[in-house]
Amino acid sequence: MSLVVVPAVDLTTAQASVPSNYCSGKSYTYLVKTYAYGVEKLALRCGTASWGFVHIANYGRWNSTFDSMIALTISQGEKVTDLQQDGGNRIFALFDGNCHELFRVIYNGNAYNGSGVSPQGIITAYYSTSGTAKTPGTIATYPQMKAGVTNPAYRTDCPVIQNI
Hints:
This protein is α+β, with helices and mostly antiparallel strands and 164 residues long.
């Protein structure tokens, strides 16, 4: 078993880094923010109803907890190739100590539909359903994700199952 110890992340605040209506009146190409993956910066663009920030916000998922989970999953999660060829070229998945998937981020580092917008960026992100059920906007029920837990550990050797 391979564990990664990460600094505590405060998942208790309800305000997001940007409001859920942040992209109102902005182009789908507009850069909302970036997330660190080593020295790389992975883009989250405004997008559309089917990808990016607008897609995430339209499903009611966007808040500070969700924003933190995207950052944590990209920086500490497993990175795998998209076997389904559904638009992403990187999938990041975060697992607890028992290999229950907690969260997933799908990213496309290529151009969006040949439009010249490159990279397209984060297509979607969501709480996984293979572990304990979670409600968007709440702290996950896994012990290492609860507020006040310092140095939580996440597995980095778990298989990623693509059944979506």
